[in-house]
Amino acid sequence: MDLYQAGTEFPVYRRLLIAEGHLKHSLSYWALRKRNKFTKPFDINAYYNDPAVQILIDSGTYSLNHNPASAPTADELADIADHYYDEFIQPNLSRIDFFVEFDAARLDADHRMKRLPWLEEHRAKAVFVWHPGQDLDEICENWPNVAIPKDAIDNNLAHRLARIVRSTGVRLFGLGITKPDLLQTAPFHAVTSTSWLSPSQFGDTIWFSGGELRRYPKKMKDRARKRHRQEFVDAGYDIDLIDQDDPTEVLRLSIYAWSRYMEKLNASIRGVTPTTPNTTEPNVDFASNTVDTQSLQERHQGVTTVAPWHRPDNPTIRTKEQLADAEATVLELQLGRVYKRARAEESYGENELDPVLSEEIDRWSKLAASKRKADEASVSISIKATQKGAAETGLISRLFGAQETPHHALPATPSEAAEQNIVDADVIED
Asked: For the chain, which residues make up each domain, given as ranges?
């Protein structure tokens, strides 16, 4: 997959891309019309004197279709379309890789049909634009190059495009499509985008780290730049200029990040995972027994980075003991993140703190407090007795109800003589 960086109608961006070694450029005809009156024939070699630069011409009609109020009239669009094909594309056809169809929505349908024979004649470099409502399968069967606008694609269409490419062999072009999930799903031959310019236009920070393309908005740029500070230094960029929002330096970061991301994406598409070569010491003995390379015990007791091919079993939680183990594991993982941010803070200069470290410590403290509270043993027993009606004769009613059984006194113990074998008698006095 090729990435044609857009915005090259501005000389400063064009020169910067060439200086950074990115040689695939997208040039917008409509954006160029705002800077060039075309009073004389346009020679694209005057813009790109380096023959190594590969050029894709975008008609730029996307902005016209989404802002119809400022679009020219239908008659004016017909003249502009003729100029695009006859005076802009035709003289420079041998220098460019591809050119996108002039697909303005307000362009007369008859005029568009009139240009189809010319497009058919140059079908090897012409990119036909598909729009929702058109027969995508038929277009891909009839044209070798088909463009998909960015507002017409989603994950469902991306999976459908993969099937169409397998059956027709069409080359797909994503216009303004740079969402990582779509790039990983849809089998584009090439994409165009101005996303790399967002650091200078909107204050974003774009960087490639941990195998992912990371885009931080302006409100998060300070935190992001502190987080990746050492990575910027290792890549050879000027930290002071980045902190000062130097437009050239932040765009250099963006170009580097996009290049690294496309390398990783293309490697994964080819089924190749780039790895750092490891040198093996000579005269290494072979293992006598088969070694399970996916075993954590064989990877230095789990202290090394988990390899991409390691597939641990899915954890299951069925008992209280398993739940306690899972909580302890999460607590240990969070503590590891705290230590990692602490080591990163040590690499900063004096009087520089890592704002992420405090957040990680707070998370760990909350997790630890929650676990301590759960570990506290507490038992409470409550008994609640209720009676629905006085007429019931159940056990509860007999014990506590209004018709409870009256308590009878125990019978009196019969009195007996204190001594046995003594006859009671009266005393008679003489």
From this structure: 2-193, 319-371
- 245's torsion region: left (phi>0), alpha (psi -120 to 50) or beta? left
Computed over its alpha carbons, how large is the radius of gyration of the chain?
Answer: 40
- Measure the CA–CA gap between 193 and 24, rounded to whole angstroms: 11
- Residues with Cβ within 8 Å of residue 125, at least 6 apart in sequence: 93, 96, 97, 98, 99, 145
* Residues 132 and 157: beta-carbon distance below 8 Å: no
Distances (CA, A) of 278 to 190, 268, 271, 275, 281: 33, 21, 20, 9, 10
Strand blocks (E) in 68-113: 98-100
Instruction: Give the whole-angstrom CA distance, residue 344 versus residue 342.
Output: 5
SS3 content of the chain, % helix, strand, coil (to 5): 45, 10, 45
pTM of the model: 0.63
44, two tokens: 């694209």
Helix axes 355-375, 320-346, angle to 10 degrees: 160
The Cα–Cα gap between 206 and 262 comes to: 14
What are the pLDDT tens digits along the chain (430 aa)? 999 999 999 999 999 999 999 999 999 999 999 888 888 889 999 888 889 999 999 999 988 888 777 778 888 999 999 999 999 999 999 999 999 999 998 888 899 899 999 999 999 999 999 998 899 999 999 999 999 998 888 888 888 999 999 999 999 999 998 888 888 889 999 999 999 999 999 999 999 998 889 999 999 988 899 989 999 999 999 999 999 999 999 999 999 999 999 999 998 876 544 444 444 544 545 555 555 554 444 444 444 555 555 556 667 788 888 888 888 889 899 999 888 888 877 766 555 677 678 888 988 898 888 888 877 765 567 777 665 655 555 666 666 655 555 666 666 666 555 555 555 556 666 5
Query: Could you give the CA distance from residue 68 to residue 65 in angstroms, rounded to a whole number?
Result: 6
Q: Which of 212, 180, 181, 177 is nearest to 191 (CA)?
A: 177
Distances 78 to 102, 103, 128, 247, 413 between C-alpha atoms, Å: 10, 11, 18, 39, 126
The Cα–Cα gap between 276 and 116 comes to 50
Q: Which amino acid is at 57?
A: I
State the architecture of 2-193 in CATH terms: Alpha-Beta Barrel (3.20)
Q: How many CB atoms lie within 10 A of CB 404?
A: 10
